[in-house]
């Protein structure tokens, strides 16, 4: 399926005879086909990527890929075999579910003397099994490392717990288990929408819109 999607996106000369170009499909079909190829340079995929980015640019913020607008069983959509009860193939579903999107509504880390204050108002977008899209509570500070990199932040790794502090050891003293914790941080205020997706080769691509 990946090679077929990619071939359709490139015009179909390789494995799909006389396949229409991405411009012949509804915009969400074009986004799917071009996303599978990492949005290669072409007029059709440039238009698809522009719409992809527009949807994550406030306001409003929309689901980046809206497969309910890409009918795969009709002549106006993509004609592919192996369609499930939800109208999608396993590969198409994998592309959709592989999209990671975070909306950092506000992140602010303020330090003053021995005190520090963190405001972390972040949500993550998820596609449900039935195809619906929803936002749920998340965290920039405890989010994936790629989120910090995409937003110009920093990732810190430290070990907490154990008996590596300065308190003297004594009989009966217990030590909590040590664990390694990785957190994200950002200097100053941060607001933005950041998205990561995979193409047919497994390579990751990241986009971000700050506001």
From TrEMBL:
Phylogenetic placement of the source organism: unclassified sequences, metagenomes, ecological metagenomes
Protein name: Uncharacterized protein
């Amino acid at each position: 399926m990946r090679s077929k999607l990619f071939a359709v996106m490139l015009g179909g000369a390789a494995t799909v005879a006389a396949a229409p170009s991405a411009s012949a499909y509804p915009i969400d079909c074009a986004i799917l086909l071009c996303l599978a190829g990492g949005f290669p340079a072409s007029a059709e995929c440039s238009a698809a990527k522009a719409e992809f980015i527009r949807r994550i640019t406030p306001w409003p913020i929309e689901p980046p890929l809206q497969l309910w607008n890409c009918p795969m069983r009709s002549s106006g959509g993509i004609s592919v075999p192996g369609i499930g009860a939800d109208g999608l193939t396993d590969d198409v579903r994998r592309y959709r579910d592989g999209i990671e999107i975070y909306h950092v509504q506000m992140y602010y880390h303020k330090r003053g003397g021995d005190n520090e204050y963190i405001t972390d108002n972040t949500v993550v977008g998820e596609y449900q099994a039935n195809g619906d899209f929803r936002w749920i509570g998340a965290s920039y500070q405890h989010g994936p490392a790629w989120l910090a990199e995409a937003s110009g932040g920093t990732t810190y790794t430290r070990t907490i717990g154990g008996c590596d502090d300065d308190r003297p050891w004594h009989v009966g003293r217990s030590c909590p288990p040590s664990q390694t914790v990785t957190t994200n941080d950002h200097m100053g205020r941060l607001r933005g929408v950041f998205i990561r997706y995979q193409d047919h080769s497994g390579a990751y691509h990241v986009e971000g819109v700050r506001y």
